[in-house]
Each structure stands twice: as structure tokens, then as C-alpha cells.
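---------- Forwarded message ----------

FYI, see the Probable membrane transporter protein record below. Original note from H. follows.
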Amino acid sequence: MHIYLPIAGLSVNMLVIVLLGGGVGLLSGMFGVGGGFLTTPLLIFYGIPPTVAVASSATQITGASVSGVLAQMRRNGVDFQMGGVMVAGGILGSGLGVLLFRLLERLGQIDTVISLTYVLMLGSIGGLMARESIATILAQRRGEKPRRMARRHNPLIAMLPGRYRFYRSGLYISPLAPFLLGVLTGVLTVSLGVGGGFVMVPAMIYLLGMAAQVVVGTSLFQILFVTAATTLIHAVTTEAVDIVLALLLLVGSATGAQIGSRFAMTMKPEYLRLMLALIVLAVAVRMAIGLTWRPGELYSVELG
């Protein structure tokens, strides 16, 4: 069954969009990422204009995050103090991101910049994740015990002034560190249509040194509010939010996030990370091909 998207200006298969939202919601529940880093490029592959894909995917991320946060709250896996600081930074970053988005629109380079940034970002992150996961799996097969990193925040973060105790995360650090992390994810959310979880989750573990049991839930909590603000900003400024497209994505993502949260409990973390890494690399390769490949003939003539 096909349905017309008024803002995108084209007709799409409803089932394909719902399934796409469900798959991204599944990843959201499994990994604590909003899923926008996959939603946006997949929508572009399907023919949705990049500006509409960026703005509409933020709405889908909000729905997936609601479902994921509720699941994590039942497990007491959300640090609301840390999340509140990150939300404040994320809202500020959203304002900065929309200025960047509008500037690139005026220059006529928004579509190229979105695609190129995704190739670089997904390629580097996917490569690092794949290398770490494969190394862990090979070490386990050799019978070696996995080396556990000491939960210690970065020395630069320790130098920041005004420390505060975040009890659920087990940290005593300056709120400025999570605030700046929130600003970064806010900029990414508006300008690229990503939730920022694929940046935030590693940063929360390796830079801030947060307790692992609250990382996913706190990430989703921040993503929820920042993507909601981003949707409002895009609706008012760029007018690129296609509500029909967003609703179709939401139908699938809300269900997928619940399934993903349960599925994550049954698989080893290193295999989950490897699976996500391969998906990310595949998307990066596909986008790189789209940027570089051109047909032999740009125009064709058909006899009527």
C-alpha cells in the first residue's frame, strides 16, 4: 500500500517505512542509540530528500526513545541528574545546530554536507567498533580473560571546576563535562538528524567514566528531550518535518525499541557491538558509492 508524503512530495510504500522504523527502534533498545544515524541515510537511499529525512527522523527518534526510556526506568537504569545536565546542553546545541543548518541551506550545500559527514562519521565509528569487537571475540576464543578498563574519567575532565556528585553514575565531576557533551549531541541532532547516542554512549563510558548500568538509559533520556526540541525547531524554522513520514516511522520504532531492550539481555555485548558495527560500515559504504558513482549518461532520450 502506497501513501503520499506532502512535504517530501512523493509516494512511498507504507510497509517499507514502518519496517524501517521498527528496525531502527530495535537498535535503539539494544544499544541505547537514537537510531537517527541509520534512519536518515536509509530514508535518503529510499528517495526522501535529505533535508526532509533529517527533520523527520528526529521525530521518529523521539518515539523510539520514549519506549526505550520507559523500559530502562523499570530497570532503574536512568541517572536523572546526569540526564538533566545533558538535556540542558542539548537544547543549547540544538539552537546552534539550526543556525548551521540554515547557513548550509542558503549556500546550497546542505545535501552534500549531510552525505559526506555521514560517510566520514559512520566509517570511522564503525571501523573502531568492529576492531574492538573482533579483538574481544578472538581473545575469548583463545581462552583469555577480557581486560576490564578501570572506570576513570579523562584527566582533562578532572581539571574542570565546580565538581558535583552524581550518585547513580558513581561520579564526582564538574557538570560542565556532561553539559558540553550535550551541546555536541544537540548540534548533531539538528544538523544531521541523529540522536547522538552513537557518540554519547562511548563518551559516557570512556570519557566521563559512568557506571555501565545507567549509560544506556541516561543516553536515551537525553535523546528524548533533545530530539523533541529539535522537531519543534525544524517545524518552525525549516518547515521540513513531514508528519506523515514521521508517524509511519513512529509506529515501527516504538514497538522495535521494546523488543530490542529484551533482545539485548540474551546476547553477548561483543557480538551486539560487532553486529552494529557491520551495519554502520555497510551504510557508510553505500553512502560513499552514492557520492562518487555517476551513471555513464546523465540524460537519456525515450521515444514517445
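H. also flagged this: The first strand starts at residue 2 and ends at 5.
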